[in-house]
Structure prediction request, 159 residues.
Amino acid sequence: MTSTKKIFNAKDYTNAPQQLRKTRLINAPIEEVWDVVANHGGMTEWMPMISHVELTKPNANGEFTEGCERECQFGPDLLKEKIVFWDAPYGYAYQIADMHLVKDHVGYIQLQPKGSGTEVIWTQYFYPNSNFAMNFVARQIMMPGVMSKALKNLGKQVA
Prediction:
């Protein structure tokens, strides 16, 4: 299943700066980690606060890969996302439609083989779309906490 890796460039999808980056080494081969990460509906099993994922629009080929759209119920918010980059089994990137906390958002989940395991690197690019206090809470507390817990849960899900 391993193929030639494509190059992801966030500037192809947003001008927003990198705001957050979290990494975690998972003791499983890249294909096993990819199978969990690439399963849109399975996000509810490892992503904190996501209670439901609905695939709303396939891409032009009828697939739920690059170009597809999904909606994720994230706590009280409905995140409208488009998959803008897909490179099995190395990762994918998604855009979230502007919302009260962020705008011009792109998230990139990258997988890299590391020995017999896989390093997962999750990077988020966005502009704050809220007042200073809300921006501080989102960028310094909420989002890093969700990302760290998600990566920890992902490791348990794959094991």
